[in-house]
C-alpha cells in the first residue's frame, strides 16, 4: 500500500514565494515566516459558495462533480469566490457557469468550514450556503466542472454520496430550518 503524502501547508510549502529562500519556517499552525527577507505568509480560509435550489416538487438540485476532488459525487452547485468578488456575485456567476441558470432571489443560510484537497495541497475554505430561487429551469444544461444534475427528495439523498462534509451540513441545515 502506498502511503499518501500529507497535503497540509507546512508539509507542502518549502520555499518563500517572495525571495525563493529555503528559510521559510512554518509556525506549526497557520503562518510561515521567511528568515531571509522577513516575508510573513498566513494560511487563511478561502471563501466558497453553494446554492440550495429547489424545484416546484420540493426536490433539491444536486450536481455531479466532473473532476477531483470527489469526481462523480453529489454536490451543491457553486464554487470559489474570486478575488475582489462578493459572495452574492460569486453564487450568481457560478450557477450561470455550471448550469446556465439565472438566480432571481437568494437568502444566506449558513457557513461551514471545509478542507478541499487539490493538487496535493489542502485549501481550507469557508463554504457559504445560500437558498436560491431561479427564474426557470428551461435552459438548464451542464457546463464547467459539472458532469450532471439530479433533483432529489430529502429522504432519497444518500449523504455518503455527498462530496464533502460541509456540503452535507449545509443540506442538513436547510432541511432542519424549512420544517
UniProtKB/TrEMBL annotation:
Gene3D superfamilies tied to this protein: Nucleoside Triphosphate Pyrophosphohydrolase
Matching InterPro entries: NAD-cap_RNA_hydrolase_NudC, NUDIX_hydrolase-like_dom_sf, NUDIX_hydrolase_CS, NUDIX_hydrolase_dom
SUPFAM superfamilies documented for this protein: Nudix (SSF55811)
Keyword Metal-binding recorded: yes
Keywords on record: Hydrolase, Magnesium, Metal-binding
Domain Nudix hydrolase: 44-175
PROSITE patterns (UniProt xref): NUDIX, NUDIX_BOX
Needed cofactors: Mg(2+)
Official protein name in the record: NUDIX domain-containing protein
Highest classification ranks of the organism: Bacteria, Pseudomonadati, Bacteroidota, Bacteroidia, Marinilabiliales
Amino acid at each position: 500500500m502506498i502511503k499518501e503524502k500529507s497535503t497540509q501547508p507546512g508539509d507542502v510549502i518549502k520555499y518563500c514565494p517572495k525571495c525563493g529562500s529555503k528559510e521559510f519556517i512554518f509556525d506549526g499552525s497557520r503562518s510561515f515566516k521567511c528568515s531571509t527577507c522577513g516575508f510573513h505568509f498566513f494560511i487563511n480560509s478561502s471563501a466558497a459558495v453553494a446554492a440550495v435550489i429547489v424545484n416546484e416538487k420540493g426536490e433539491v438540485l444536486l450536481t455531479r462533480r466532473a473532476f477531483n476532488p470527489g469526481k462523480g459525487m453529489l454536490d451543491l452547485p457553486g464554487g470559489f469566490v474570486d478575488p475582489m468578488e462578493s459572495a452574492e456575485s460569486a453564487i450568481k456567476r457560478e450557477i450561470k457557469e455550471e448550469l446556465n441558470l439565472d438566480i432571481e432571489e437568494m437568502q444566506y443560510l449558513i457557513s461551514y468550514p471545509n478542507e478541499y484537497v487539490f493538487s496535493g495541497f489542502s485549501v481550507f475554505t469557508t463554504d457559504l450556503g445560500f437558498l436560491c430561487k431561479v427564474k426557470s429551469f428551461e435552459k438548464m444544461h451542464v457546463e464547467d466542472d459539472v458532469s450532471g444534475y439530479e433533483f432529489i427528495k430529502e429522504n432519497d439523498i444518500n449523504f455518503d454520496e455527498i462530496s464533502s462534509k460541509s456540503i452535507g451540513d449545509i443540506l442538513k441545515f436547510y432541511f432542519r430550518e424549512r420544517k
